[in-house]
C-alpha cells in the first residue's frame, strides 16, 4: 500500500540521498572551492545506492520483513558514509586557506532518522497484521 507513512519516510530518504547532495556542498577545501557529491565518485555512488535502496523498499510494501531488512542495510550504509564524512572532516587541514565543513555532511544523519521512523511504522504494521491473525 503506497499510502502508508513509511512510504513517505522512504521517499524523503530517497530525495535526501538522490537529489540534495548534488546541490548542497559537502565541504569546502581552501582554494579548490566547494566539493559536491558529483565531484567525489565513491560518495556519489554511495548516495545513489542509498536512494536506490529506499526506492526498492517502497516497492516491497507487500513483504514487510524484506522492507525492514532493506532499511537496516540502508542504515548501515548511511553509517558507513557518515563515518567517511567524520574521517574526512577530521583530516581537513587547518592551513592558512580556511577549510570548512558543509551542511551536506548531515544528510546521512537525517537519512538514518527517517529510516528509523520508517522501520517503526513497518514494525507497527507487522504487529497489527499478527494481532489480526490471532483473532482468526
Overview features:
single chain; 136 residues; mainly alpha; 3-stranded antiparallel beta sheet; 4 helices; 65% helix; elongated
Number of strands: 3
Number of helices: 4
Query: What kind of sheet is the major sheet?
Result: 3 strands, antiparallel
Report strand %: 5-15%
- Rg of Cα set: 18 Å
Mean pLDDT: 84
Regions with pLDDT < 50 over 5+ consecutive residues?
none
Order of strands in the sheet with most strands: 2-1-3
Structural class: mainly alpha
Describe this structure in words.
It is a single chain. The protein is 65% helix and 6% strand. It has 136 residues and is mainly alpha-helical. A 3-stranded antiparallel β-sheet has the order 2-1-3, with no helix packed on it. Helix 2 runs antiparallel to helix 3 (64-90). The protein is elongated, with a radius of gyration of 18 Å.
Summary, kept brief:
This protein is mainly α. The protein has helices spanning 5-18, 41-59, 64-90, 107-135; strands at 27-29, 33-35, 100-101.
Amino acid at each position: 500500500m503506497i499510502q502508508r507513512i513509511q512510504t513517505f519516510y522512504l521517499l524523503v530518504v530517497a530525495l535526501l540521498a538522490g537529489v540534495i547532495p548534488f546541490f548542497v556542498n559537502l565541504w569546502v577545501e581552501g582554494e579548490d572551492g566547494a566539493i559536491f557529491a558529483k565531484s567525489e565518485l565513491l560518495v556519489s555512488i554511495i548516495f545513489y545506492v542509498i536512494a536506490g535502496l529506499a526506492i526498492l523498499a517502497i516497492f516491497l510494501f507487500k513483504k514487510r520483513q524484506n522492507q525492514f531488512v532493506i532499511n537496516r542495510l540502508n542504515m548501515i550504509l548511511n553509517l558507513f558514509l557518515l563515518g567517511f564524512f567524520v574521517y574526512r572532516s577530521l583530516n581537513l587541514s587547518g592551513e592558512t586557506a580556511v577549510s570548512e565543513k558543509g551542511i551536506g555532511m548531515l544528510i546521512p544523519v537525517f537519512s538514518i532518522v527517517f529510516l528509523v521512523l520508517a522501520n517503526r511504522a513497518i514494525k507497527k504494521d507487522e504487529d497489527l497484521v499478527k494481532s489480526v491473525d490471532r483473532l482468526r
